[in-house]
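Appendix B. Chain record.
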Amino acid sequence: MKDYLQKAYCMNQTVRIYAAITTDIVKEAKSIFNLWPSSLQALGRTLTISAIMSCTYKSGEFLNIKLDCDGPVGKITVEATDGKVRGFCQNPGVLLQYNDGRLNIEHAVGAGTIEVVKDLHMRAPFSSSCEIVSGDIAQDFTYYFAKSEQIPSSVGLGVSIDNEGNVLSAGGFLIQVMPGCKEEYIKALEERLKTMKPCTEMIKEGYNPEEIINEITGGDYEILETKELKYECSCNRERFEKGLISLGKDTLTNILNEDHKVEITCNFCNKKYNFNEDELKELIFKCK
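Structure tokens predicted for this chain:
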């Protein structure tokens, strides 16, 4: 089954729910970066909520999400648009556990800030931020929506891995209360969230998006949209050529004289782009 998201309404169309399975996305990140369990959980959860968030905006609108963390995982960077997502963490080789063997995600992430930059095709991108309150990622984004976007929300995220660190399943949900939602609806939803299965448990048991929505609502919902999700890197040689040209003639000439070549690795997919001596000369010629 490919990764996908379902959007639904409930509570007389005053509550929006986005539920997603992101197993292939997280597997792809694991394969690219050889992520250890704590780094895998941190990046996998961030990729999941970023993919979900990208589906709350119009087609073509772009998100850049950065977690500036002081834990051993380091900074996490994710870009997302239209359900397509890519990302990386500063330190992929982190395994941090509690004494009972459970993964310690909170301390692996640590304290810091979440910054979300949204390119909504207006005059300038819009930026918002908040502090990281737990390192759990799901709780942190629940807090982000309440503080930075003033949207009462609940976020659930889960990545299930085996004893060898392989990804078994991944996914999550985003619940957003819209203006005009009755207090009785909000209280009923809060009670439902207290008694339903945790997101991590649902993901581990193989729930699909509709089953997650059903668990949240108790069956009273309306599916509005189904959207495919995937890990996709938009890097290409032309983009890196432009980046090299932007360094200027003097810098490129120094590189040519000292190294005679340059290799650039994409942070998001680890693909390497090589430019030889003749190609550097051509780029220098293109510099203004």
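Further analysis of this model is presented in Appendix C.
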